[in-house]
Amino acid sequence: MSVLTVATLAACSSLAPQQPSQGTGVNAQNAIQRTGKFALLVFDKTQDKNTDSVQGNFLWNGVGENVVLDLSSPLGQTLARVEVLPGYSKLTRSSGEVFEAPNPDALVAQVIGQEIPVSGLRYWIKGQKIPNQPLIEESHDNAGKLTSFKQAGWDVTMSDYDSIGPTKFNLIRNQTTERIKIRLIVQ
User: Fold this and answer.
1) Distance between CA atoms of residues 52 and 137, nearest Å
2) Closest CA to 66 of 99, 25, 32
3) 44 vs 3, 17, 167, CA distance in Å?
4) CB of 117 within 8 A of CB of 154?
5) Rounded to two decimals, what is the model's pTM?
6) What is d(CA 62, CA 50) in angstroms, rounded to the nearest whole number?
7) 30-50 tens-digit pLDDT
8) 49-108, pLDDT tens digit by residue?
9) Which residues pair with 56 in a beta bridge?
10) For labelling alongside 138, which of 21, 22, 58, 75 has CA 20 to 30 A away?
11) Distant-in-sequence, close-in-space partners of 97: CB < 8 Å, separation ≥ 6
12) Distance between CA 92 and CA 71 in Å, rounded?
């Protein structure tokens, strides 16, 4: 299976999407909500061509270590919901098919058949590094905010910080046979 499977998951929605509260922002202590757009591109190095691409919208609600992430098509149809709790992660496709695992990285490996670390997103979306993992080639802006680094196999660039964190992200993961690019823009 390809990385595209994670984002496209289904053509029609049967999940009720989360309703965003007033804009994006902090709703309670340790709570964060972000809405925006995503684009994912997979380049197959063995074929020297793009093999998968998808774009759409996301709604991220997080409180402490708990996260609910809705992915939707550009037309607003919910493609999938990902729920993350300490020691438990679940992905529900719009078809109703459910996948469960002990953490987000294991969930992605189960769904797409290859290991791609994604658990760092919960930190990066706030402009933070993953605790207890090396940060390589880090750089900061004049305000001391993280702007680029390598961590967990990803090359990450972040910019245009608001009061919560960065609003523009570029993530690149170079593997032996493919390159995965993810772009997130928070609105």
Assistant:
1) 29
2) 32
3) 11, 33, 28
4) yes
5) 0.80
6) 32
7) 789 999 999 989 999 999 999
8) 998 888 999 999 999 889 999 999 999 998 899 999 999 999 999 999 999 999 998 998
9) 38
10) 58
11) none
12) 11
Is the per-residue pLDDT at 20 higher than 50? no
Amino acid at 173: R
* Token reading at 12: 């029609």
Cα–Cα distance for residue pair 112/91, rounded to 1 Å: 12
Per-residue CA distances from 129 to 33, 136, 147, 157 (Å): 18, 11, 11, 12
CB-based contacts of 39, cutoff 8 Å, min separation 6: 53, 54, 55, 181, 182, 183
Q: What is the chain's alpha carbon radius of gyration, rounded to the nearest angstrom?
A: 16
Per-residue pLDDT tens digits for 112-155: 777 778 888 889 999 999 999 999 999 999 999 999 999 999 99
Which residues, in sequence order, are CB contacts of 24 under 8 Å at separation 6+?
33, 34, 35, 164, 186, 187
The amino acid present at 31, given as its one-letter code, is A
Structure tokens at 88: 């438990």
Look-up of token digits 């691409």:
53
